[in-house]
């Protein structure tokens, strides 16, 4: 026992060595406990007490040594060894979705669009009502979402960044020329082509005499900046409750240059966004005189643009944060 009291150790590694020597699987005290089985019954009581006291003393000693070391790390402590080489800190990179978002925004910035943002947790009015989706309208089916409350104007997770258009019309002075990036949510089963969380960039331009030709020009200039000088666009008629007329925009496939490949499924075209002239109902619902003002809007999925840019085939990669995937992109800050 007196020997235990005199034990010393300065470093954490020495203390650990001592603990193993005394109380590890094959330690001296552990061994004594093993031998205890062979002790004569009449000696068991007395010896048992001695062994237990020994064990308690040893573990108290170890705790004590650790405490002393903690309070007074001293020069010999490995935690303060200034001659040791430092830990290597790996430099991170930006996520491909952030890189793509910033590229889209900087293109529209050059065209004079300013940044606008809105909340991800929205109400029905801003996501649907003010955008000309009456209650029970079938167009709502394509954007099923996660409802937080029920009632007349339920709170929900926004399904598109078009809700930011509404917020901008409510508080900005005309003319309005904005781009709105952000995260959106839909009640979708997760697969290579769909996810319940994704990102969009929305655009809105409202002024006197804004025409469909202006919309086409804006989209063409964007497509050429994003996908290259030779890019062609085509507009296919489509439907959105908040625009009339509405169109889907395709760009000529930048892989096969329009000849047809497996990326564009042999068509030579890739769909990149929806767009249209803001429906007069939407302008009026937001207090803008539709006899004086017109406007266009467009919306695109950032994941989709990034997939086309880098030929990523599975949407899920963007959300898994697998370092092997992220390292594929030359995005070091
Ligand atoms: N909000 C639409 C969606 O998520 C995309 C969209 C289409 C936005 C046309 C627009 C637009 O502003 O004009 O499917």
Strands, helices and their partners?
Layout: H1 2-6, H2 12-23, H3 28-35, H4 41-71, H5 96-110, E1 114-115, E2 121-123, H6 124-127, E3 155-157, H7 162-171, E4 176-185, E5 197-207, H8 212-227, E6 233-240, E7 243-252, E8 269-278, H9 280-285, E9 294-301, H10 302-310, H11 317-320, H12 323-326
Parallel strand pairs: 1-4
Antiparallel strand pairs: 2-3, 4-5, 5-9, 6-7, 7-8, 8-9
This protein binds 3,4-dihydroxyphenylalanine.
3,4-dihydroxyphenylalanine binds next to strand 8 and strand 9.
Fill in the keyword field for this structure.
333 residues, alpha+beta, BirA Bifunctional Protein, domain 2, 7-stranded mixed beta sheet, 12 helices, 9 strands, 37% helix, binds 3,4-dihydroxyphenylalanine
Please tally the β strands and state the result.
9
Query: Helix and strand string, N-terminal first?
Result: HHHHHEEHEHEEHEEEHEHHH
Average pLDDT: 91
How much of the sequence lies in strands comes to 15-25%
The number of helical runs is: 12
Main beta sheet strand tally, sense and closure: 7 strands, mixed
Helical residues, percent: 25-40%
**Distance from first to last alpha carbon:** 61 Å
- CATH architecture field of the largest domain: 2-Layer Sandwich
Regions with pLDDT < 50 over 5+ consecutive residues? none
């Amino acid at each position: 026992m007196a020997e235990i009291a005199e034990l010393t150790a300065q470093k954490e590694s020495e203390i650990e060595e001592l603990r193993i020597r005394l109380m590890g699987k094959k330690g001296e005290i552990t061994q004594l406990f093993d031998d205890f089985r062979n002790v004569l019954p009449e000696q068991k009581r007395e010896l048992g007490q001695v062994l237990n006291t020994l064990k308690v003393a040893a573990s108290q000693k170890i705790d004590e040594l650790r405490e002393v070391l903690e309070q007074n790390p001293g020069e010999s402590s490995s935690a303060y060894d200034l001659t040791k080489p430092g830990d290597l800190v790996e430099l991170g990179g930006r996520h491909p979705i952030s890189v793509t978002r910033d590229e889209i925004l900087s293109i529209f910035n050059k065209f004079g669009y300013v940044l606008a943002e809105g909340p991800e947790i929205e109400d029905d009015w801003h996501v649907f009502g003010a955008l000309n989706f009456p209650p029970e309208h079938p167009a709502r089916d394509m954007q099923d979402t996660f409802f937080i409350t029920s009632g007349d104007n339920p709170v929900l997770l926004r399904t598109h960044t078009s809700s930011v258009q509404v917020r901008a019309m409510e508080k900005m002075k005309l003319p309005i020329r904005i781009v709105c990036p952000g995260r959106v949510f839909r009640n979708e089963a997760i697969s290579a082509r769909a996810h319940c969380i994704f990102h969009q960039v929305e655009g809105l331009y409202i002024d006197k005499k804004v025409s469909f030709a202006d919309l086409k020009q804006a989209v063409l200039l964007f497509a050429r900046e994003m996908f290259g000088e030779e890019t062609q666009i085509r507009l296919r008629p489509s439907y959105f409750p908040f625009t009339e007329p509405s169109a889907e925009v395709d760009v000529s496939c930048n892989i096969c240059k329009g000849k047809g490949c497996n990326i564009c499924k042999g068509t030579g075209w890739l769909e990149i966004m929806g767009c249209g002239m803001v429906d007069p109902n939407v302008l009026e619902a937001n207090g803008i005189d539709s006899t004086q003002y017109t406007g266009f809007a467009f919306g695109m999925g950032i994941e989709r643009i990034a997939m086309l840019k880098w030929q990523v085939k599975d949407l899920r990669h963007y959300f898994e944060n697998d370092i092997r995937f992220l390292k594929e992109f030359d995005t070091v800050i």
